[in-house]
Amino acid sequence: MITKKTMLCALTVLIFLAAPLTAAQEEKTGQEETELSLITRTPEEGFQLAIVLARKGVTETQRDKEVLKALRPAYAHDPNSLIAVSQVVAIYFQTIAAANNYWSDK
Q1: What does the domain layout of the chain look like in residue ranges?
Q2: Which residues neighbour 13 within 8 Å (Cβ) at sequence distance 6 or greater?
Q3: Which of 1, 22, 34, 60 is the most exposed place for a label (fewest CB within 10 A)?
Q4: First CA to last CA across the chain, in angstroms?
Q5: pTM for the model
Q6: Is pLDDT above 70 for 13?
């Protein structure tokens, strides 16, 4: 059973990823900020895309940048929060890998 504390930790960890994307990060994924696709050339690009998706999910959910910044100290040093964010990115990466047929045809 997922507790309220666990859900709060997961949400706050996702906020950690909410910093705006840089041009270099967008270039790494091969995607423009407004045009996302699950199809990537390599697993490495797929992993970068998983991070982008996690960050975009947070910024779409919590659009108030000041709230995002205010919450950061509460989770930045919490190991459970860091583990939770790793799980979210891993789930996105699983989805991307499946969409790319695990890069077996590349």
Answers
A1: 4-103
A2: 75, 78, 81, 82, 84, 85, 88
A3: 1
A4: 40
A5: 0.64
A6: no
